[in-house]
Design goal:
121 residues, globular, mainly alpha, single chain
């Protein structure tokens, strides 16, 4: 189970750091081209990117450095919340297909939360 959780954490971390990095480095014009960004200022999208990078790192660093074992499930729980909000936003805008990836990431992060908390007992 631990190997499976590590693989899941690495995949999630790479995805979130990649997506977050794109949100931080794209120009404002490139960010406005994304359909879900209507109504959101570029600064908010960049802040979201920074949060995603920190969350991605937080899935890996505590376990790699032997820090508090609660930090990894806490980071994953934050991603569950973030992805739940993303799914809700896409569904509210009628973007059903765009809600699929955040829903999958939500489930993956929830598995990390459950698995890491289960290992603490």
């Amino acid at each position: 189970m631990s190997l499976f959780l590590w693989i899941l954490q690495i995949v999630l971390a790479l995805l979130f750091m990649g997506i977050g990095g794109q949100r931080l480095t794209r120009s404002a014009r490139q960010l406005r081209r994304l359909p879900w960004t209507d109504g959101y200022p570029p600064a908010a999208i960049r802040a979201l990117g920074a949060v995603e990078i920190v969350a991605g790192l937080s899935l890996l660093i505590p376990g790699l450095l032997g820090w508090s074992p609660l930090l990894t499930p806490a980071a994953a729980a934050g991603l569950v919340l973030l992805m739940a909000l993303a799914v809700a936003m896409h569904l509210r805008r009628g973007q059903r297909q765009a809600a699929v990836l955040p829903a999958i990431l939500l489930v993956m992060a929830a598995i990390v939360v459950w698995g890491r908390l289960t290992q603490l007992h």
